[in-house]
Specification:
By secondary structure, the protein is mainly beta. Helix content is 11%, strand content 36%. Strand 5 (71-77) and strand 6 form a beta hairpin.
Length: 134
């Protein structure tokens, strides 16, 4: 009886998503670029946006239904680097290294991130409910 109750309480709904890992480096020095903004588009629609972590990586988890013609386009904005745009053919478990070049940008220091989050209209994070029942 206890096993049945325990198994019922552990039910969860999982959605199948594709994982993408983007590692962002500065082209000339090959240094990691934490705090880079990555926008992901498919067709004309932005389907994800995020900021790279301290290891210079940005993880994106995308619904297959959001991806049109098996292609995505990314735009990457790094500190003191000109914006970078690239088209990618989608494959499961995709990992890609993005090289940014120094150039003109409005993103010149780490404190600019708040202004850019507003400009790029980042969505509010989804709520996290730990230990609750739907």
């Amino acid at each position: 009886m206890l096993l049945g109750t325990s198994a019922f309480a552990q039910t969860a709904k999982f959605e199948r998503k594709l994982e993408f890992v983007f590692t962002i480096l500065q082209k000339e020095t090959k240094t990691l670029m934490p705090g880079s903004i990555v926008e992901v588009f498919s067709g004309d629609k932005r389907i994800d946006v995020g900021i790279s972590d301290y290891s210079g990586r940005q993880f994106a988890y995308l619904h297959p239904k959001d991806i049109i013609d098996n292609k995505i386009r990314i735009k990457v904005y790094g500190i003191k680097c000109k914006p970078h745009e690239q088209s990618i053919i989608v494959k499961p478990g995709l990992a890609r290294t993005i090289y940014l070049s120094y150039g003109n940008t409005e993103y010149t220091k780490a404190s600019d991130i708040g202004k850019l989050i507003k400009k790029f209209n980042f969505p509010a994070p989804p709520p996290f409910f730990c230990g609750t029942v739907d």
